[in-house]
Amino acid sequence: MKKFFCDAVLFDLDGVLVDSIECIKRHWTNWAARHGVDIEYLNRVAHGRRTIDIIRLVAPHLSAEEEDAAMSAAEASDTDGLREVPGADALVRALPPDAWAVVTSGSLAVATARMKRIGLPVPDVIVTANDVSEGKPNPAPFLLAAERLGVAPERCIVFEDAPAGIEAGLAGGMQVIAVVSTHSADQLTKASAVVDRLSDVQIRVENGETGFRLTVLTE
Fold it and tell me: Counting beta carbons within 10 angstroms of the beta carbon of residue 107, is it exposed (0 to 12), middle (13 to 18) or buried (19 or more)?
């Protein structure tokens, strides 16, 4: 068992709190077919990155801004196949409201639609693709979340499922716990710890003189 101490927890959304793989695959497969993009290549480079960055990478001849807006609107209105990652609801509800945030490569509309659809509480702090000029693997999204929570980056723990997110969290000076969901464990070895299931994680909250102190335990 590994033990981590922190003052705030930053969660990626898709693949960490919400199992949205069915929905995401459906939209990207349709988009790739419409634009003649190799779906196998797209799948290799896409996970954990902002939609606009994916489009710039796989289809530089298209207007990334227009395609990004269209994709966001389509995904925000489609909640078919979404499921809670086992243990997600219990984990976030164990945290004080001002001690956690969601940091996603999607839009605010998509993030809130997905959390509401499966009954997860929506945190006060959500950092989305539109809040930063550079997305993961750049650390900017996680650093902005820490700033909005008023917590030093080194006092944050990140939960991620993708190599790009792990790289971003580590580059921001944070410890990163990787969840095996969309990637195999051997693709997540750079993380501070790797867990097979989110339900393997426990969070203990202590209320001290300087605020909340969180202890994160992984099996």
Answer: buried
Q: Are 217 and 2 in contact (CB under 8 A)?
A: yes
53 token code pair: 């960055």
Let me know: does 57 contact 45? Beta carbons within 8 Å.
yes
How many Å apart are CA 185 and CA 72, to the nearest integer? 30
Q: Phi/psi of residue 193, each to 5°? A: -155, 155
Q: What is the pTM of this model?
A: 0.89
Examine the pLDDT at 58 and tell me if it is beyond 80.
yes
Whether 15 and 181 have beta carbons less than 8 Å apart is answered as: yes
State the burial class of residue 146 (Cβ atoms within 10 Å of its Cβ: 0-12, 13-18, 19+): buried
Residue 210 has pLDDT above 90, yes or no: no
Q: Are 185 and 177 in contact (CB under 8 A)?
A: no
Task: Starting at the earlier edge strand, list the strands of the sheet with 2-6.
Answer: 2-6, 211-218, 201-208
Q: Which domains, from first to last, does the chain contain? A: 2-19+82-218 (3.40.50.1000), 21-76 (1.10.150)
Q: Name the residues annotated as catalytic.
A: 12, 14
Q: Are 164 and 134 contacting, i.e. CB atoms less than 8 angstroms apart?
A: no
